[in-house]
Write a structure and sequence with these properties.
RNA-binding, 888 residues
RNA sequence: GGGCGCGUAGCUCAGUGGGAGAGCGCUCGCUUCACACGCGAGAGGUCGCAGGUUCGAAACCCGCCGCGCCCACCA
C-alpha cells in the first residue's frame, strides 16, 4: 500500500492512550485473523523460511529464550512487511535426557526395559525420589509425553505473550511421529549408502547415565587432582641389575595401572633411549608391557615417559589404535572397576597371586575410591617416588553429567563425518554468517573432529533405531545383518513392533529376533529440523499419521535462515549441515544468524547452578512485551548482552512516546494539503528517507539492532526538534493563504512520517505499533508494506540537489538556534514558553540564508519576537528574554 | 598452546581517517496547548598501554596488557 492511500481513514484517537492490555487485545486479534499464517500459494522466490530453534522444553524458561527469539521475530516481521510469505513454524525439542531426568524426579519412576507394558499404569500420588517405581519403556515414554505437553504450553504462552509472529498452526516436536519417521528414514538411507555403520569400539561414556555420548556433548571442567610419580621395574632379563633398572612415569590416574598396555617416549628423547624396546612390569600387578615411541608424546611433560591405558583419555585411544596395542579394560559401564580374568590371555602376571590380591582391593570401587586405595598400595610397595604434586586440570564431562566421562568399549552406531570434512568446510564457506566471524568457530570445530559421530544412546526417551537383529540357534545376536524396517512402516519402535516374517513370540528366543535397544542421540533428530519443519509441520504429537509434504518442502528448503546462539554451533549447526550434506548434497540454509547470550549484570553466564537465572514471565508483566523486546533487540548479532531491566524502561518510554506522538500527529486540526511546501517539512521527510534506507540495509544484513538504533535515534530527534519546530505553524493556521498552506504542509508531513515510523518500529514493538496503526489505518501494520526510501523522496517532487541541501541546512540551523534559546530559558529558570524579545544569530552566509527558510517556524517554536542575523565565522546565538511579567 | 571477539563517561553501549557521542544514573530547572509514564539544561572521558602509517588516528598497521568465549594430543 502506498502511503498516499493510507491517510484516507478518519482517525479515532483515544483521549488517553495507554499500553495497558495491548498484548492480550492484539495477540487475540492476530490469532483470529490468521495474521501470521503461512501463505502456501506463494511461489518459492517470495517465500522466506526460518529454521526455528526448537527450545528444550524441559529446561526452565530463561530470559535468554526471550532474547534470541526476539531477534528472529524482528527479522521475520521485517521480511513479512517486505512482502514475503514467511514460513515461521515453532518446534519443541522434547526428546532426550533432560526430559528423562525431569520425568524421573517429577513422577518418582525409573525406566526398566525388562518390565512389561502396563496400559493402566498411573504414577504414584506421592513420588518418592528414594524409591522410584520401575516401569516399562512404553509407560516411561507416555509419562515423558504427558510432562512435555505441559512444558510446551508454558513455552507457547511465553511466546504468545512476547508477540512472536509464529504460525501456530505449524508446530512440531522432536519426539512426534513426523520427526521420528523423518529421522528413521534418514538413518535407513544412510545405512544403505554406507554412511552409517556399527562398531564395537572405545566410546565416550557417561557412567551415571550409562550411555555413550558424542564429542560435541563434552565440556571441560576444572578439577583438582594430584600428579603421582610411579615406578615401573624392568622385566626379568631386560635389566643389568643397576639402580637405573626402572622406568618412572607421572600420572593423575593411577587406578588405571592395571589397564596399562605400554609406556611411551618421544622418538627423539635421548633420556629414554635405553628403555625403548624393553619390557617393564606394571607395579602391583606385574603385567609385562613394552616401552615404545610415538611422536605425540611430549618429552617436556612429566618424566618424558607416559603410561598408555585402555582407556584413560582420547589420546590413549589414538596410541592404542596407531601402535596396535592390546585392550586390557578394567572400567565397567557403571564407572566401577570390574572383575577381570587374571591369568587368562592378556592378563598374565609374573606374580598372579599378588595381582589377584591387590586387584581385589580395587574391584567394585568407583574411580575415585580405587584411586585412593591404589595409592596406598603403591606406597606400601614403595613404587611411588616422592610426594604427589597437587594439580588443577581440565577434565572432560558430558555436559549434562556429574562425573567425568570415561572411555568404555561398546557396540555403537556411527555416522561418517571424518571422510566429509573437506566438503563440510566448503559448505561452511558457502553459508552467509551473521556476524561473519562466527564462521571461525565452525571451522575450528570441523578441523578439530577426532572421530565419526556416535549417534546411539543407551537411553529410552528418544527416536529408536528402526532395526532388528536375528538371533542364531544359541540365542546370540547377529549384529552384522540388521533387519531394517520398511519405509511404509515408519516410525517403528523395535521394542514393540515386529519385523516382517516374524511373530511376536519369536522375540528374544533362539532363532528369533531382538529389536535394537538404543535410541538416537537427540542431535541426530534435531539436526533434521529443516526437513521436519518443512515436511511434517502440522503433524505435531505422536498420534498423528500425517505424511510428509513434498510440495511444502520444495517451497521452504533450503531455508533462508537458521537463527541460533553461538554455543551450539558445534552441535546443532554443525550436525544440521552434515545431515543436509549427506541427504541432499546441499546447505540446509542460506544464512546463519547467530545470537549472543544473556549474561547476568556481573557479565557471568546465567546458569541454574549459579542461581542467577532470570525468568521472563514477570518481566513481560512488569514492563510490557514491547519493552522487553526493545531490550532484546538492542543486543547486536553475536554479541553477549548483560541483563538490564533499565533498558526495558527505556523501551517502555519509547512505546509511550509513540502513542503520544501518534495522537499529536493525528489530531485533526486542519484539512490536509496536497503537497509538502514548507522547507522544514521537506527536509524532515528527506532525512526520514535516509533513515529508511539505512534500516533496510541493516535488516537485509540481519542487523536488527542497528536498524532499531537508527530509527530510534531519529524518532527522538523528530519528537524533540521537528515536532516542536512545526507545532506553532500547525496551530496558527487560517490567518492567511500562506499560513493555510503551511499548516496543510505540516499536517501532510506529520501523517506521512507517522506512517513510516509506525512501520519502521513494527518489527520491534509489535503491540504498540499495531495499536497506533489501528487508530487510522485498515488492516494490520504487520502486513503493511515496509517503507520505501525512494517512494518517500518522490513525494517531495523533483527536488534539485542545491535546494535539498539548503532545506536540510534550514532544518539544522533552526534546531541549533532552538537549542540555544532553550538553554537561555533554562539558565534563566524560565518556562520554555517564556517570550524572547530578540535573538541574534551569528553564522556563515550560507547557513544564515538557509535560516531564512525556516525562520517563521523558529519564531513560533521559541516564542521569539525578532530574529536578527550577523555574518560570522563561528556559530553563536545571543538571546534576549522579554521582561519577566511583574508578580500579581 | 591455537583461534575468535572485546577494551570509549559511574553503568550499558554507538561511533570504518577530519567536531569525542547516546541512553541510563547524577545535578539544576520547567505543571508546556501529543506526552509529568513528560520537557529543557548541565556536570562528567588520557577513547587499555606503547610505537608506527598519515597533513590529520578512538578508528588503519605492529607489539604489549587485561577480560570473555571457542578449540586443543589436558600424561
Amino acid at each position: 500500500m502506498p502511503p498516499d492511500q493510507l491517510t484516507d481513514t478518519p482517525a479515532t484517537v483515544p483521549e488517553r492512550p495507554t499500553l495497558d492490555g495491548l498484548e492480550q487485545k492484539w495477540s487475540e486479534a492476530w490469532e483470529r485473523d490468521g495474521c501470521y499464517r503461512f501463505d502456501r500459494s506463494a511461489p518459492r522466490e517470495r517465500v522466506f523460511s526460518i529454521d526455528t530453534p526448537p527450545p528444550t522444553v524441559s529446561g526452565s524458561l530463561h530470559v535468554g529464550h526471550v532474547f534470541s527469539y526476539t531477534h528472529t521475530d524482528a527479522v521475520a516481521r521485517y521480511q513479512r512487511m517486505r512482502g514475503k510469505a514467511v514460513f515461521y513454524p515453532m518446534g519443541w525439542d522434547d526428546n532426550g535426557l533432560p526430559t528423562e531426568r525431569r520425568v524421573q524426579n517429577h513422577f518418582g519412576v525409573r525406566c526398566d526395559p525388562s518390565v512389561p507394558y502396563d496400559a493402566s499404569f498411573e504414577p504414584p500420588a506421592e513420588p518418592s525420589e528414594k524409591e522410584p517405581v520401575s516401569i516399562s519403556r512404553p509407560n516411561f515414554v507416555e509419562l515423558c509425553l504427558r510432562l512435555t505437553e505441559t512444558d510446551e504450553r508454558a513455552f507457547e504462552d511465553l511466546w504468545r505473550g512476547l508477540g512472536l509472529s509464529v504460525d501456530w498452526s505449524m508446530t512440531y516436536t522432536t519426539i512426534g511421529a513426523g520427526a521420528q519417521r523423518i529421522s528413521q528414514r534418514s538413518f535407513l538411507g544412510l545405512l544403505e549408502r554406507g554412511e552409517a555403520y556399527q562398531l564395537e569400539a572405545p566410546t565416550l561414556w557417561d557412567v551415571d547415565f550409562q550411555t555413550a555420548v558424542a564429542q560435541a556433548e563434552l565440556e571441560d571442567r576444572e578439577r583438582p587432582g594430584a600428579m603421582n610419580r610411579v615406578r615401573f621395574r624392568l622385566a626379568d632379563g631386560d635389566g643389568d641389575g643397576a639402580d637405573g633398572d626402572s622406568a618412572l612415569i607421572e600420572t593423575t590416574r593411577p587406578e588405571l595401572i592395571p589397564a596399562c598396555v605400554a609406556l611411551l617416549a618421544h622418538p627423539d628423547d635421548e633420556r629414554q633411549r635405553g628403555l625403548v624396546g624393553k619390557q617393564v612390569l606394571t607395579p602391583l600387578f606385574g603385567t609385562r608391557v613394552p616401552v615404545l615411541t610415538h611422536p605425540l608424546v611430549d618429552p617436556e611433560k612429566g618424566t618424558g615417559l607416559v603410561m598408555v591405558c585402555t582407556f584413560g583419555d582420547l589420546t590413549d585411544v589414538v596410541w592404542w589404535r596407531e601402535l596396535g596395542l592390546p585392550v586390557r579394560s578394567v572400567l565397567g559401564a557403571d564407572g566401577r572397576l570390574a572383575e577381570v580374568p587374571w591369568g587368562a590371555a592378556g592378563w598374565e602376571s609374573v606374580d598372579l597371586e599378588r595381582a589377584r590380591r591387590d586387584y581385589e582391593e580395587l574391584q567394585g570401587r568407583t574411580v575415585n575410591q580405587a584411586r585412593k586405595r591404589i595409592l596406598e598400595l603403591l606406597e606400601q610397595a614403595n613404587d611411588i617416588v616422592g610426594e604427589p604434586t597437587p594439580v588443577t586440570r581440565a577434565v572432560k564431562f558430558f555436559e549434562k553429567g556429574e562425573r567425568p566421562v570415561e572411555i568404555v568399549t561398546s557396540r555403537q552406531w556411527f555416522l561418517r563425518t571424518m571422510s566429509h570434512r573437506e566438503k563440510l568446510l566448503q559448505r561452511g564457506r558457502e553459508l552467509s554468517w551473521h556476524p561473519p566471524y562466527m564462521r571461525a568457530r565452525y571451522e575450528d570445530w570441523v578441523n578439530g573432529l577426532t572421530g565419526d559421530w556416535c549417534v546411539s544412546r543407551q537411553r529410552f526417551f528418544g527416536v529408536p533405531f528402526p532395526l532388528w537383529y536375528r538371533l542364531d540357534a544359541s540365542g546370540a545376536v547377529l549384529y552384522d545383518e540388521p533387519i531394517a524396517a520398511r519405509e511404509e512402516q515408519l516410525p517403528v519402535d523395535p521394542s514393540t513392533d515386529v519385523p516382517d516374517g516374524y511373530s511376536t513370540e519369536q522375540r528374544g528366543v533362539p532363532g528369533g529376533f531382538v529389536g535394537d535397544p538404543d535410541v538416537m542421540d537427540t542431535w541426530a533428530t534435531s539436526s533434521l529440523t529443516p526437513q521436519i519443519a518443512g515436511g511434517s509441520a502440522g503433524s505435531a504429537g505422536t498420534g498423528s499419521t500425517a505424511g510428509e509434504d513434498q510440495e511444502l518442502f520444495a517451497k521452504v528448503f533450503p531455508m533462508d535462515v537458521r537463527p541460533q546462539a553461538h554455543d551450539i554451533i558445534r552441535t546443532w549447526l554443525f550436525s544440521t549441515i552434515l545431515r543436509s550434506q549427506l541427504d541432499h548434497d546441499a546447505l540446509p540454509w542460506k544464512n546463519a544468524a547467530i545470537s549472543g547470550w544473556v549474561l547476568d549484570p556481573d557479565r557471568k553466564k546465567m546458569s541454574k547452578s549459579k542461581g542467577n537465572v532470570v525468568t521472563p514471565m514477570h518481566l513481560l508483566e512488569e514492563y510490557g512485551a514491547d519493552a522487553v523486546r526493545y531490550w532484546a533487540a538492542s543486543g547486536r548479532p553475536g554479541t553477549d548482552t548483560a541483563f538490564d531491566a533499565q533498558q526495558m524502561k527505556v523501551g517502555r518510554r519509547l512505546a509511550v512516546k509513540l502513542l503520544n506522538a501518534s495522537k499529536f500527529a493525528l489530531a485533526d486540526l486542519s484539512p490536509e494539503g496536497e503537497s509538502l511546501t514548507s522547507p522544514l517539512d521537506r527536509a524532515m521527510i528527506a532525512r526520514l528517507a535516509a533513515v529508511v534506507a539505512d534500516a533496510t540495509v541493516s535488516f537485509d544484513g540481519y542487523d536488527y539492532a542497528r536498524a532499531l538504533e537508527r530509527v530510534e535515534v531519529f524518532f527522538w530527534w523528530y519528537c524533540d526538534y521537528y515536532l516542536e519546530l512545526v507545532k506553532g505553524r500547525r496551530y496558527d493556521a487560517g490567518e492567511s493563504q500562506d499560513a493555510r498552506l503551511g499548516a496543510a504542509s505540516v499536517s501532510r508531513a506529520l501523517r506521512r512520517s507517522l506512517s513510516v515510523f509506525q512501520r519502521l518500529l513494527a518489527p520491534f514493538l509489535p503491540f504498540v505499533t499495531e495499536e497506533v496503526w489501528s487508530w487510522w489505518q485498515q488492516g494490520s501494520v504487520h502486513r503493511a508494506s515496509w517503507p520505501d526510501a525512494a517512494e518517500l523522496l518522490s513525494a517531495l517532487g523533483g527536488v534539485e540537489v542545491d535546494s535539498a541541501a539548503s532545506e536540510d541546512e534550514a532544518l539544522a540551523i533552526a534546531a541549533d538556534v532552538l537549542k540555544e534559546v532553550r538553554k537561555a530559558k533554562s539558565e534563566a529558570r524560565r518556562p520554555m514558553r517564556a517570550p524572547v524579545a530578540r535573538v541574534v544569530v551569528h553564522d556563515s552566509a550560507t547557513r544564515l540564508a538557509a535560516l531564512a527558510l525556516g525562520v517563521e517556524d523558529l519564531r513560533l517554536a521559541g516564542s521569539i519576537e525578532a530574529v536578527e542575523t550577523t555574518e560570522a565565522d563561528e556559530f553563536a546565538v545571543e538571546v534576549e528574554l522579554a521582561e519577566e511579567p511583574a508578580e500579581g
